[in-house]
Design brief:
Elements lengths: L2 E2 L5 H14 L6 E5 L3 H13 L3 E5 L2 H6 L8 E5 L7 H10 L6 E5 L4 H10 L3 E4 L4 H13 L10
Parallel strand pairs: 1-6, 2-3, 2-4, 4-5, 5-6
Amino acid sequence: MPRIRGWISEEAASSVMGVIDHQTSEKAALILLSDDDVSVRRSLHLLLRSRGFGVLSYASGNALLLDPQTQSGDCLVVDYLMPDIDGISILRKLRSAGWCGPAILITAHYADKLAESAQEAGFAAVLEKPLRDGVLVQTIGEVISAGRKVGSDHC
């Protein structure tokens, strides 16, 4: 799985949002966001809201897993390394509960072995922190608009 870096233009991000709006029948795609770093979580929440996404943010993986609203999420964006539970384990638990949406792992500690483990667990992408706004928005748009139910065979 490639490590993704770089920026995309506002124009490209806007076109991705158009696809998302169309794919979700004019309903904003709902992003499940979990990161224990409050500044990262807040900035990503604000970014995603500003791009038209609905966002449910969680300070911990367990908080995300305990919220019944997660079943209505269209895409998961989750940090790998958190104090209570790692991002890969979160996706595995969501899959075992029947959630089959696409997932993106974010990490400050990228390694090829981590990317392999993430792919095996059903993640569509691994993004390295610090995140570039356009790359995150583009990646979310791609995994949602492609209709990728990555890891659905794990459900």
